[in-house]
Amino acid sequence: MKKDIESKLAPVQQREAEFTEELARQTEKDRLRKEYIEELQKRHEERKMQLEQQLQIIRRQRAEEQVARMELQAQLMRAQAELKAATALERAKADHDATWKARQAEEERALFKELLENSDSLAGYVHEMNSRINNIGNNFFDQMPQAEQFGEPVGNGSHQPGTNGYPDQYFLA
Predict the structure, then answer these.
(1) Which value, to the nearest 10 degrees, does the dihedral of the CA atoms of residues 97, 101, 107, 110 take?
(2) Which among 38, 120, 154, 164 counts the fewest CB atoms within 10 Å?
């Protein structure tokens, strides 16, 4: 009976040994799976942290870019306002210059006209003065004694016109 039990017990023990080995293998597989899962979780957490850090960096960069964009827009608006003011100032300066040049040209024309009128008046005065001087000169020389009235000039004895250095018509004392 003992042999019969041992013969029946041997396959059961063998099965038990197989199950124990199988259980040990399954336990080892479970442990390895658990380690693998823990390693995957660890990698996942690390990757998650890296991605979160990258996301924070990207968000910070976007915020900085947005601030920079806003600053650039503000600078652009200021530059446009300055350009508009400078353009208006330049336009006003050009208008002022054109007005000033037109006024200067008008003043120069008026001055030139006045100079022409004055020069015409002066020319008339000069002509009148020349006429008066000529009249005075003619009257003066007409009233002057003539060389014939005094006789022959002292010198070479004979009077020939233009040879004694005196004018032929007048005698000046």
Answers:
(1) -150
(2) 154
Give per-residue pLDDT as tens, 133-160. 888 877 776 666 666 666 555 555 554 5
The amino acid at 39: E
**Taking the CB of residue 1, how many other CB atoms lie within 10 A of it?**
5
Within 10 A of 2 (CB to CB), how many other CB atoms are there?
7
Q: Kindly report, residue by residue over 44-85, the tens digit of the pLDDT.
A: 999 999 999 999 999 999 999 999 999 999 999 999 999 999
Give dist(CA 56, CA 46) in Å, integer.
Answer: 15
3-state secondary structure the chain: CHHHHHHHHHHHHHHHHHHHHHHHHHHHHHHHHHHHHHHHHHHHHHHHHHHHHHHHHHHHHHHHHHHHHHHHHHHHHHHHHHHHHHHHHHHHHHHHHHHHHHHHHHHHHHHHHHHHHHHHHHHHHHHHHHHHHHHHHHHHHHHCCCHHHHCCCCCCCCCCCCCCCCCCCCCCC
State the CB neighbour count (10 A cutoff) for residue 170. 13
Amino acid at 26: Q
Q: Are 161 and 168 in contact (CB under 8 A)?
A: yes
The torsion angles phi and psi of 160, rounded to 5 degrees, stand at -125, 135
Q: Name the pTM for this structure.
A: 0.41
